[in-house]
Design a protein that fits this description.
Layout: H1 2-29, E1 36-37, H2 53-65, E2 71-72, E3 75-76, E4 78-86, E5 89-98, E6 113-115, E7 120-122, E8 131-142, E9 145-153, E10 156-164, E11 170-177, E12 180-181, E13 185-188, E14 196-200, E15 202-203, E16 206-207, E17 209-214, E18 220-227, E19 230-238, E20 246-253, E21 266-271, E22 277-280
Antiparallel strand pairs: 1-20, 2-3, 4-5, 5-8, 6-7, 6-8, 8-9, 9-10, 10-11, 11-12, 13-14, 14-17, 15-16, 17-18, 18-19, 19-20, 20-21, 21-22
């Protein structure tokens, strides 16, 4: 009898230990357990001065002098093509791309690149080991009719972009500067327009794209996204760590899709200045 009790005790101890281990493993992979964010995943300093008219004119003038076959904005490119069939219609794209290993601007929401393995054009999660950035002229056809055309600059829309219907009727015209809609609003801390305070993306008179608010030292303070003028997804606030690291302060959950009825934004989680979790809304799990 004594040996049976000892055996039962050992089995119970083993199960408790195993449960504790599993709980610990969950905590290790808990995305909210720490508010510290790897700097490489987050822009911690503000971008360079945007929409500088003088520098843009000088750059355009310089690029014109270097105009050569398949060379755009000073970079040599190659041509590519994709083809897809939808029912009885053929849609294909003709584009240029560069193999130049350029660092992707973390502030731009849509970075267009050609996935060489799957042979499709993507606009998210650029991976230089899998593909190349679009750079130069781009055209999309439906059968023999052009339905979209524009220019790319290292994966970002640049200059004037046009879209048409199947009868070549102009549907839309957009203007971009290296991925930023030209109507975007930028405010500054100083009169000399050198220290950026906020970048509010605006397209067709609606807020559209990634929003940024910076501390005066240039570190990101708030990052979020707009779609059709509505806040969507998770908006994140960050502690001012004087650019030493990025530590989340608060996450606010907004609707995943714009114009979602009966959705009320709520605080998803909060962290202290050391990155330790102090609050989490269990409904968000």
């Amino acid at each position: 009898m004594k040996s049976i009790k000892i055996l039962l005790f050992l089995l119970i101890a083993f199960k408790v230990g195993a449960f504790a281990q599993k709980k610990s493993d969950v905590e290790l992979v808990d995305p909210d357990s720490s508010g510290i964010v790897a700097n490489k995943l987050l822009p911690t300093t503000s971008p360079l001065l945007l929409f500088d008219e003088q520098s843009r004119k000088e750059k355009k003038k310089k690029d014109k002098k270097k105009a050569k076959k398949n060379i755009y904005f000073g970079e040599k490119t190659r041509k590519g093509r994709t083809r897809q069939v939808f029912r009885d219609q053929v849609q294909y794209t003709v584009f240029n791309y560069t193999s130049e290993q350029k660092t992707v601007d973390p502030y731009i929401r849509d970075i267009y690149w050609y996935d060489q393995k799957d042979r499709i054009i993507r606009s998210k999660d650029f991976d230089p080991s899998k593909g190349v950035l679009l750079h130069g002229p781009f055209e999309k056809y439906l059968n023999e009719t052009v339905i979209e055309k524009g220019m790319f600059y290292f994966g970002t829309k640049h200059g004037t972009w046009l879209t048409f219907d199947a009868k070549s009727v102009l549907l839309d015209k957009g203007h971009y500067n290296e991925g930023w809609p030209k109507d975007s609003r930028t405010t500054y801390y100083d009169e000399n327009n050198k220290v950026i305070e906020k970048i509010t993306p605006v397209e067709y008179e609606l807020k559209e794209g990634n929003f940024y608010h910076f501390y005066q030292n240039g570190q990101a303070a708030v990052i979020g996204e707009y779609k059709y003028g509505e806040k969507v997804g998770i908006w994140t606030e960050y502690w001012d760590t004087k650019n030493t690291t990025a530590i989340r302060k608060r996450e606010i959950q907004y609707q995943e899709k714009p114009f979602t009825k009966n959705f009320r934004p709520y605080i998803r989680a909060e962290w202290d200045k050391e990155g330790s979790l102090i609050y989490r809304n269990l409904a968000s799990n």
